[in-house]
Amino acid sequence: MTGLLTQEQLEDALREVGATRYHHLHPFQLRLQSGACSRGEVEAWALNRYLYQACIPQKDAIILARMDEAPLRREWRQRIIDHDGEREGEGGIAKWLKLTDDLGLDRETVMSGRLALPATKFAVNAYLSFVRDRSLLEAIASSLTELFSPMVIATRVSGMLANYDYVTKDTLAYFTARPVQAKRDSDFALDYVKTHARTPEQQRAVIGALEFKCSMLWAMLDALEHAYLYAKPWPDAFQASERGERQAAE
């Protein structure tokens, strides 16, 4: 793009990023929701994904601290509450830990992040650096993957419940509230981006920010697929259990 897009054209361009680059197209994601993953792969996915889930309120706190306007801060802080909860045991992170608990993973080990793949750690740190170092407009635009998450969540939940007998609705409780929350948050962020990206340069920047976020999520799945399907994980990372492999084979 060289000229200034209308707000509608900008929205179309952002949605095209999701249609072509969001991780709903990734082979590992397709295997996960179709029942093709071993239990060890499901465990590895949940453990590594925790590191990303845990960084979300940190990311939002960085963005919040950069906002000069109180109304904007009031709107944005709900995201932190959604993930951290108002008290211990509430919020999205606690629900993700319910998922890893149900998979038999040690909670302290999961929370420490020490068994996450190096690429997972690099990706999460890159995301935090992005929202800290780029413009506020780009930081907000990077959150627009939430435009596309509801469609992935529905497919992921139905597929995992149908294909993994060790997964229950309670196990996947994290995903229950996310479609409504993601719709609320993405509506707000999309309106902000469309309103404040007023030059071709700014519009290119927000499209690039969303592409970056998609690439970050894609890279995490690339690492999982390589480590647990085609090669082997980093020596200090989570090793898929023989128990999980045997159950998958059965």
TrEMBL record:
Any one GO molecular function term: pyrroloquinoline-quinone synthase activity
Pfam families assigned: TENA_THI-4
Reactions mediated catalytically: 6-(2-amino-2-carboxyethyl)-7,8-dioxo-1,2,3,4,7,8-hexahydroquinoline-2,4-dicarboxylate + 3 O2 = pyrroloquinoline quinone + 2 H2O2 + 2 H2O + H(+)
Family: Belongs to the PqqC family.
Pathway note: Cofactor biosynthesis; pyrroloquinoline quinone biosynthesis
Gene expressing this chain: pqqC_2
EC number: 1.3.3.11
UniProt name for this protein: Pyrroloquinoline-quinone synthase
One GO BP annotation of this record: pyrroloquinoline quinone biosynthetic process
Enzyme class: oxidoreductase
Domain Thiaminase-2/PQQC: 13-222
HAMAP family the UniProt entry points to: PQQ_syn_PqqC
UniProt keyword list: Oxidoreductase, PQQ biosynthesis
Organism of this sequence: Hansschlegelia plantiphila
InterPro entries, per database record: Haem_Oase-like_multi-hlx, PqqC, PqqC-like, Thiaminase-2/PQQC
Gene3D superfamilies for the chain: Heme oxygenase-like
Domain of life: Bacteria
Purpose of the protein: Ring cyclization and eight-electron oxidation of 3a-(2-amino-2-carboxyethyl)-4,5-dioxo-4,5,6,7,8,9-hexahydroquinoline-7,9-dicarboxylic-acid to PQQ.
